[in-house]
Amino acid sequence: xxxxxxxxxxxxxxxxxxxxxxxxxxxxxxxxxxxxxxxxxxxxxxxxxxxxxxxxxxxxxxxxxxxxxxxxxxxxxxxxxxxxxxxxxxxxxxxxxxxxxxxxxxxxxxxxxxxxxxxxxxxxxxxxxxxxxxxxxxxxxxxxxxxxxxxxxxxxxxxxxxxxxxxxxxxxxxxxxxxxxxxxxxxxxxxxxxxxxxxxxxxxxxxxxxxxxxxxxxxxxxxxxxxxxxxxxxxxxxxxxxxxxxxxxxxxxxxxxxxxxxxxxxxxxxxxxxxxxxxxxxxxxxxxxxxxxxxxxxxxxxxxxxxxxxxxxxxxxxxxxxxxxxxxxxxxxxxxxxxxxxxxxxxxxxxxxxxxxxxxxxxxxxxxxxxxxxxxxxxxxxxxxxxxxxxxxxxxxxxxxxxxxxxxxxxxxxxxxxxxxxxxxxxxxxxxxxxx
Length: 436
Description:
Blueprint: H1 18-30, H2 34-40, E1 41-43, H3 46-57, H4 60-63, E2 71-75, H5 103-110, E3 114-119, H6 153-160, E4 166-170, H7 177-182, E5 186-189, E6 210-214, H8 217-228, E7 241-245, H9 255-270, E8 274-278, H10 286-302, H11 306-312, H12 315-322, H13 331-350, E9 355-359, H14 368-373, H15 375-391, E10 394-400, E11 410-416, H16 420-435
Helix pairs in contact: 1-3, 5-8, 8-16, 10-13, 10-15
């Protein structure tokens, strides 16, 4: 298991206190404009953070953990003992505090991680752009006038600003990978069944997954090992077979994404990866399948407070949930059957490749003003490529591919469900190649 604890150096002769790490995170947050910080965190309690760090310093077993002293921001849909889980909504803000940590949070803390604030998100995690009418719109780290991406919007900014080392996020249709890619970070969406969902407020039980955002894939891998209670498997870095996705996932790329993707392909080819252009015909109609299944499950989850959402919820989110009311009786069953067939077809095609690649997103981050004026189209555009992998029940990482350009783009490395460590191992190699 990868040890990334910053509390000890490899020389063995130098150690640091978790309290010092916490103080640095708090100082970094204090240097952020308060109006901006309020769009990133729904709760940032410095006393709580310091108390947790001091407790870690006094706990020899947790200090020996592989994440000891790592500052982890927690998306506001994960339960933390004593905290209210609002899922980015005022509707849940007056609920009872959680009686225990979500399993994902519990595992991170047991490995020595320190909770570093609860991060803002799209309401109920139901959009890919990261806007929230209750907490505000966190801007992009490269241009505050552009979107951060969602739904793990605050989590991405907490890492990009250097407040947290890792952000704990969820990914139902791209909610880890979208904000990671738009803010120059790495992100990992694991196999849907890899990390227990207990204690995480659901959007869609068929699609929800739990994954990290960080500066490097190595950090994502270390977090995933703890979250999934699995160990990395050795990867053979020679003669890797990569399918380069054509068709839907490369349609309508903007100029920068197209150029960055081509340069990434050239780098991988020069590194002697075996690249083959491929089609993914099983993706035909996937967007409608996702819409039917996710909206149907979300509608059942939120049925008891739809009336209150009419009064104070995000109208974009409410409209997506209420879409389920227009579906025909057999639509959900038909959608599930189409998805099952696509998953089987993808798994069969993947037998000839180690991983596949595509741009994480087809464009750079849109302007917030443009998203507010054209929400449905731009939200759909942000979700398109990442949500295709959720449809296929796959796992996927995103790594930066924009080099020194002013706005970030991401390269998505993906494979069928169950191939998490293959994807992570190859993504770490690719991140190194693209950064050199």
